[in-house]
Amino acid sequence: MQGNLPPEAQEKLEQLQDLQEKAQTVAAQKQQAESQLSEAETALDALDDIESGTTMYREVGELLVETEYDDAQDDLEEKVDDLEIRVETLTKQEERVQDQFDSLQEELQNMLGGAGGAMGGPSA
């Protein structure tokens, strides 16, 4: 049925589809960042139960390398801070994409509204 749409409406529909794909990508990135943040926070909390003189190891690729307690704590705190910023950024991006999608969808509905809605069947 897309072939029956006016060129302007077809373009808006394609933009909507692109925004939908972008929204899915951003949501997946946000979910991954939230998961990493949760893991880093859990590790940071676990450090509270470990004495500062305890031998610690960190993962570097596929190797475990000895590290100092303070270095491990500093690295985890930095990682948590970075991930919090990333999640916040992705949340804002997700909101912007949703606003663009809603606006574009409204434009498309207004464009097709003049045809009495007969072109596309039920609106999405």
UniProtKB/TrEMBL annotation:
Transmembrane segments: none annotated. Keywords: Chaperone, Coiled coil, Cytoplasm. It comes from the Archaea. GO terms for biological process: protein folding. It is found in: Cytoplasm. GO terms for molecular function: unfolded protein binding. GO terms for cellular component: cytoplasm; prefoldin complex. It holds the Pfam family Prefoldin_2. InterPro entries: PFD_beta-like (IPR002777), PfdB (IPR012713), Prefoldin (IPR009053). Residues 9-107 form a coiled coil. Heterohexamer of two alpha and four beta subunits. Belongs to the prefoldin subunit beta family. Molecular chaperone capable of stabilizing a range of proteins. Seems to fulfill an ATP-independent, HSP70-like function in archaeal de novo protein folding. This is Prefoldin subunit beta. It comes from Halobacterium litoreum. The gene is pfdB.
